[in-house]
Specification:
829 residues, nine-stranded antiparallel β-sheet, Kelch-typ_b-propeller, AfsR-DnrI-RedD_regulator, DNA binding, alpha+beta, Galactose oxidase, disordered N terminus, Arc Repressor Mutant, subunit A, Kelch_1, Jelly Rolls
Length: 829
């Protein structure tokens, strides 16, 4: 593991600029002299430290612009064509250029200084104290200057193409005397004040490094089917979350979650684990002595597994060793016993074997943290919970020893034991090892309470000492049903935490957190916990999960809630590329509603049907059977009295003779019944001349019916409408009236709630309700108004502006006319 030496244990501060990948309105700009220009005299210098954001793709763009009273400007830009920093004066290159690849500036600060002489008019450019270029200027320079870094929104020549950069310690000298100094050490605010003359610079959309190096950002939150497990590809920076009907891939660098719908559901028994190695993703349960491999082309695992198996190796540590292409599993807990077994699966032979260990005694345990050396032939293991002889009844206790396991020899070597802390703690399952600095990064948590938290620590590989870093992460702990993993992606220099909570075997609640590396020391106890820094990660919209969490903290009981999984782009198997899914931030310690087991019919969002065992059987509905099913179901819901055979024939088989239509109807009803038999008790019968399809609500949940049954309980209703509008991507001419009717009912209901409770609802709740309205009416001016107002209350001004601009553009595309209400008017109306 290569960790930047120059950044290790160093205080990080400065201003990061949002640039590429962000809406121009949301890009960072620093106006150093917003009111009056500074008077330069005969000679002045501009000096600052700069670095580039890792793994940003293109580094093209403006760094700063100086503009005098004659509207002449001097720019510093990074030119990707020449791979050089270049000084431009007006419309001409000055010839001052520093040829250097972006790597020179990535993750390491470089000191730049530009001197401007009035008589004669000339420029001198320095890097790290060394003069790298001089050039005369064609025109005489002025004496009053304005200065902007990044996006320039002032004056006639606005610029939004800025380099992905970081800035700190901005200084201005007059006649070599320090006149202004902006350290940029703060962690909040939209201004920065110089420490010499109190000159206030104004900053649009700032990202303060002092904040993002200390606070975790929640970058993902969703619920998925089955007992999910996690693996990490450290080369590509991909976190894999293996679920029963899907494979989730979180791209750490792009901050995007992709979802592959599996072509067939996969058994994920309780306690299953996943690991990535040699360009392959593996899933296994040690008890079954089988390992399945994911086939990306088929969107399926290569072997079916018994979903009802249960492990006796809970919280075992695992790793992949490249030197022998094997998966190692160490320790674990089950059947009231802790174990210190070491098991090995050789990929080449597909054989499991027990490893005969030697060396120091390794106490049977679980809840330890494991991290491998760079070449993967050895693993450090720290802490855990266990007992000397493995019996849970005989003095189980916390362990704080650090061991090195050599996979080549099977030997354990005890390195040290940490002092027993005042408050005992256990460890997350994985840790990050830096062998060059002889240190490790691990997660600790209190395992004696359910509402716990994860604390990142940095420890030594040679001495029994450690330091707490960054703010804690909320962690819902319930022994074998909770899990935490820590990974490091070197190219983006980000730590990633994945937490899993499985309240029952049917679902897993997944949370993703990231922080820039190296994280800062833990601040005072009142430092806020993880928040969604919307600018840094580009999360423009708030999630309904925010609100549900807020409401569930007030109201813990919900009648028969449904799962709210991340919605697949297509419920049917797809051989196409994975679909990016918006990642939804949410507040700390959010209690999630657990879905009731059994059959479920989702009509909100994409049409999806789960059988009584929780398997996704949507693919069993052929296009014709699906339309017949929806035709019967929607005409059978309360207040509707069914549908006649003639109406079915006319809708599905127009132009056919009565006999042909009857035959087709009979055949397809038989096909439909074969599918419905997998759900549970139902009746499909004729009442007079009309067909009625009804399900036993105790056995089959229908989200649309549950929505109406939850009248007055807005938290429950938001759970359902968060999936999307009614039957999105399902289009039939006869369906339009249903969509219109339900959309009108739902949007009217939610708008009334917003109008009557604007002053009572927190902004997160208003955003969640507005999002649900927009699921049914994307051009609801009222919903956009409430959402923008709520975002402004949260001080997410750029996000609010972006929502408005997107709405305005869509309005003009649909109606062919300009949306006349200006942004400010929308906020105050």
């Amino acid at each position: 593991m290569l960790i930047p030496r120059h950044l290790f244990a160093q205080e990080e501060y400065g201003l990061q600029f949002a640039s590429k990948g962000m809406d121009p309105d949301a890009r960072t700009g620093m106006n150093v002299f917003p009111d009056q220009p500074f008077k330069a005299g005969n000679q002045f210098s501009l000096a600052f430290d700069i670095s580039f954001i890792p793994n940003s793709g293109s580094y093209f763009g403006y760094i700063f612009r100086l503009t005098d009273e004659k509207d002449q400007h001097i720019d510093l830009v990074y030119n990707v064509r020449t791979a050089a920093l270049e000084i431009i004066a007006g419309d001409d290159y000055t010839g001052i250029s520093i040829k250097t690849p972006p790597d020179t500036f990535i993750s390491q600060w470089q000191h730049l200084r530009l001197r401007v002489d009035k008589v004669p008019s000339a420029l001198t450019f320095e890097m790290n104290g060394r003069v790298v270029g001089k050039a005369p200027l064609r025109s005489a320079v002025g004496g009053k200057w304005r200065l902007s870094f990044g996006a320039n929104r002032y004056g006639r020549d606005k610029t939004f193409d800025l380099a992905p950069m970081r800035l700190r310690d901005l200084k201005i000298f007059k006649e070599n005397e320090l006149t202004y100094h902006w350290p940029l050490r703060q962690s909040t605010g939209h201004t920065a004040t110089d420490v010499r003359q109190h000159q206030v610079a104004v900053i649009d959309h700032p990202i303060w490094l002092a904040y993002v190096y200390r606070n975790w950002e929640q970058t993902g939150a969703f619920t998925t089917m089955g007992n999910a497990s996690v693996a990490f590809d450290k080369e590509k920076g991909t976190v894999y979350i293996c679920a029963r009907d899907s494979l989730f891939r979180y791209d750490v660098n792009k901050d995007i979650l992709y979802v592959d719908s599996l072509s067939k559901t996969q058994g994920l028994p309780a306690g299953n684990q996943s690991v990535y190695g040699r360009n392959a993703l593996y899933n296994f349960l040690p008890d079954l002595k089988t390992v399945t491999t994911y086939d990306e082309t088929k969107h399926a695992w290569d072997m079916q597994v018994d979903n009802d198996s249960v492990t006796k190796y809970w919280h075992a540590n695992r790793f992949y060793a490249p030197f022998d292409s094997a998966i190692y599993v160490i320790g674990g807990y089950g059947n009231y016993r802790y174990t210190n077994e070491v098991q090995r699966y050789r990929v080449s032979t597909h054989k499991w074997e027990d490893v005969q260990t030697s060396g120091d005694t390794y106490t049977p345990r679980y809840q330890a943290a494991l991290g491998t050396t760079e070449n993967g032939d050895s693993a450090y293991i720290i802490g855990g919970y266990g007992s000397i002889n493995g019996d849970q009844l005989l003095n189980p206790h916390h362990l704080y020893d650090l061991h090195l396991f050599d996979a080549r020899t099977g030997a354990f070597r005890k390195i040290y034991e940490l002092p027993v802390p005042e408050h005992p703690f256990a460890f997350g399952n994985t840790m990050v090892i830096d062998t060059k600095e002889k240190s490790f990064y691990a997660l600790t948590f209190d395992n004696d309470k359910m509402e716990s938290s994860l604390q990142l620590i940095r420890g030594s590989l040679t001495r029994p000492v450690y330091t707490r870093l960054a703010t804690p992460i909320p962690f819902r702990y319930f022994d074998i049903r909770a899990r935490a993993e820590l990974f490091y992606y070197e190219k983006a220099q980000r730590l990633v935490v994945v937490t899993l909570f499985t309240p029952q075997n049917h679902v897993t609640q997944v949370r993703l957190y990231t922080i820039l590396f190296p994280p800062a020391l833990l601040a005072s106890p009142d430092t806020p916990g993880p928040r969604s820094h919307w600018l840094l990660w580009g999360a423009i919209s708030a999630s309904v999960l925010v609100t549900i969490g807020w409401l569930f903290r007030r109201k813990r009981t919900v009648a028969s809630p449904l799962a709210v999984p991340v919605i697949h782009t297509n419920a049917l198997p797809s051989s196409g590329p994975a679909i990016p899914v918006n990642i939804t931030p949410e507040p700390a310690a959010m209690p999630m509603a657990s879905p009731a087991p059994g059959a479920t019919i989702f009509l909100f969002g994409h049409f999806t049907v789960l059988d009584k065992d929780g398997n996704n059987i949507t693919r069993l509905f052929s296009p014709l059977v699906k339309e017949l099913f929806l035709l019967l179901l929607l005409h059978s819901i309360p207040d509707r009295k069914g549908i006649t055979s003639d109406k079915i024939n006319e809708t599905l088989w127009p132009g056919r003779s009565g006999k042909d239509a009857r035959n087709n109807r009979s055949v397809n009803i038989v096909k439909l019944k074969n599918v419905l038999d997998k759900l549970g008790h139902y009746t499909l019968e004729k009442d007079g001349d009309k067909w009625l399809l009804n399900f036993d609500p105790g056995q089959v949940k229908i989200d649309l019916l549950q929505y109406f049954a939850s009248a007055g309980q807005i938290a429950d209703q938001l759970v359902f409408t968060a999936r999307g509008g009614l039957l999105t991507e399902t289009e039939y001419s006869w369906l339009d009236k249903f969509k219109s009717e339900f959309s009108t009912s739902i949007t009217t209901h939610f708008l009334q709630h917003l109008q009557e409770n604007t002053d009572k609802y927190p902004p997160e709740l208003a955003i969640a309700i507005a999002n649900s309205i927009l699921n049914f009416d994307a051009l609801s001016e009222e919903a956009v108004m409430f959402k923008c107002r709520a975002l402004v209350v949260l001080k997410q001004h750029a996000s609010a502006r972006a929502i408005y601009n997107s709405f305005k553009k869509e309005y003009e595309n649909i109606y062919g006319e300009t949306f006349e209400k200006e942004y400010q008017a929308l906020l105050v109306d």
